[in-house]
Write a structure and sequence with these properties.
Number of strands: 15
CATH architecture of the largest domain: 2-Layer Sandwich
Mean pLDDT: 79
Order of helices and strands: HHEEHEEHEEEHHHHEHEEHEEHEEE
Number of domains: 3
Subcellular location: Membrane
Radius of gyration: 50 Å
Organism: Devosia yakushimensis
Number of helices: 11
Main location: membrane
Strand content: 15-25%
CATH class of the largest domain: Alpha Beta
Shape: rod-shaped
Catalytic activity: ATP + protein L-histidine = ADP + protein N-phospho-L-histidine
CATH topology of the largest domain: Heat Shock Protein 90
CATH superfamily of the largest domain: Histidine kinase-like ATPase, C-terminal domain
Keywords: Kinase, Membrane, Phosphoprotein, Transferase, Transmembrane, Transmembrane helix, Two-component regulatory system
Length: 463
């Protein structure tokens, strides 16, 4: 089952937005509506003031003024209001005293017709339904500013309006704040988590070849710093354990060199016997493994000396040293190198031991017959081919694992190729396995070429 991935930033953003929305809902539900809206609605009760739409419609129907008479036309809007409210009446007056009347003005309100211009805005609600409510408003019309007085027309429920307006306002506030939160909160969260991103980038640089790296706690929240400190403590313990292991391997390899050298000498000095050649091969491989362990330890500690190295000369020295061993084991050992020098930047002793190990593998597992060929390419490659059974394609990636063998009950690539790969990798190269032309194994070491030097004075002879 695929593990579920959870983003802390998204989780914090969703929770913060949810908390804000719930807080706003509680604020309006338990604060604004009970303490502000409800008392206002209760105070107004069932009040239904006149709708100012009637005064506006009448003012827009005015067309001109003749002496003391204001003329108007029956616009569709005015007709629609009169049709819905047959008892509606309207009276209009301008500053010069010109007026117009539509419908029958109640006697009580006729008393204020002459003084209407003095009233800018009035609203009257009476207890006598025969008079009805009164609304006076100042309107702008085609004949100028006028005062319009009306009654018996459409009304509006103030309590209902307040309820609707307050509800719409609450929803608008919640929507605007929710949208603002959705935009700003993720940015705030990302900004506050920049310290975590920086620590993650530092963690990506942690490598076994760059020990001593520690994660910075600068800019981290207090809640995260204990975790980073625990990781740093764990890295320190790992570095200490790795250093102890390195010292153990280096000391072991160093201690093994003397008994291996004594063993080689005794085998060489002994009277000839059937297994002498094979024992010499095995002892040489042991000596090479011990040397490679020391080389890796030197590289890890920075004690190796990298300098321009000519691959043809290095390969020639290794082939020359191993030629007697290969001949004694039943092989022909030859070297093919270009006339032009192939220069790489490397540690001579460690690369020589790596090539030695590869050739010794060919001697040990090449079938005890045929030819072992070492080819140096102008592209910085060194290939070692044999006429043995080869390595199956399915096993070629695993033979570089430490102590892995192709056949558990038989000989195969083990710790040696693992050490070879480690040395080549520290030289920024890589090692691959292919098929030799004869069907055997072909081990190819590829190194970055430093430069092409002048032509060699003498070609490297084949052995």
């Amino acid at each position: 089952m695929k593990p579920t991935r959870t983003s802390l930033a998204r989780k914090l953003t969703r929770r913060m937005i949810r908390v804000q929305l719930i807080t706003l809902a509680l604020f309006f539900g338990l604060g604004v509506f009970p303490t502000v809206v409800a008392p206002v609605v209760d105070f107004l009760g069932d009040a239904q003031p006149l709708d100012p739409r009637a005064t506006m419609v009448f003012a827009h129907s005015l067309v001109d003024v003749e002496d003391k008479q204001i003329n108007f036309v029956a616009t569709p809007e005015l007709e629609a209001v009169r049709r819905d409210y047959p008892s509606m009446w309207l009276y209009v007056r301008n500053q010069s005293g010109a007026s117009a009347t539509l419908g029958e003005v109640p006697p009580m309100y006729r008393q204020i017709e002459d003084e209407l211009w003095l009233l800018e805005s009035v609203e009257v609600r009476t207890t006598d339904p025969s008079y009805g409510s009164l609304l006076v408003r100042t309107e702008q019309s085609p004949v100028g500013t006028v005062r319009v007085m009306t009654g018996g027309g459409p009304t509006v429920g103030v309590a209902g309006i307040i309820k609707r307006v307050s509800g719409i306002l609450a929803l608008a506030i919640v929507f605007v704040l929710g949208l603002a939160s959705a935009i700003t909160i993720p940015r705030i969260v990302r900004r506050e988590m920049r310290g975590l991103s920086a620590v993650a980038d530092q963690a990506k640089l942690i490598d076994i070849n760059a020990r001593g790296t520690r994660l910075s706690t600068d800019g981290l929240p207090d809640e995260v710093q204990p975790l980073v400190k625990a990781v740093n403590d764990g890295l320190a313990r790992l570095d200490d354990s790795y250093a102890k292991r390195e010292r153990f391997l280096a000391d072991s390899a160093h201690e093994l060199r003397t008994p291996i050298a004594i063993l080689q000498t005794r085998i060489e000095m002994a009277e000839p016997f059937p297994e002498q050649a094979q024992l010499l091969v095995d002892a040489a491989r042991l000596a090479s493994l011990a040397g490679q362990l020391l080389d890796l330890q030197r590289m890890d500690l920075g004690d190796s000396h990298f300098e321009p190295l000519e691959l043809g000369d290095m390969a020639g020295n290794v082939v020359g040293d191993l030629a007697p061993l290969a001949i004694a084991a039943g092989y022909e050992l030859s070297l093919n190198a270009p006339d032009d020098p192939v220069m790489v930047d490397g540690d001579s002793s460690s690369l020589s031991r790596a090539l030695t190990n590869v050739i010794q593998n060919a001697i040990a597992y090449g079938g005890k017959k045929g030819e072992i060929t070492v080819d140096v390419g102008r592209d910085g490659t060194i290939s070692v081919s044999d006429d043995g059974p080869g390595i199956p394609i399915s096993e070629r990636d695993r033979v570089f694992e430490p102590f892995y063998r192709v056949k558990p009950a038989a000989h195969g690539a083990g710790l040696g190729l693992n050490l070879v790969e480690a040395i080549v990798r520290r030289h920024h190269g890589h090692i691959t396995i292919a098929d030799a032309p004869s069907g055997g194994a072909c081990i190819i070491i590829s190194l970055p070429v430093l430069r092409q030097a002048a032509k060699k004075s003498e070609p490297v002879p084949a052995l």
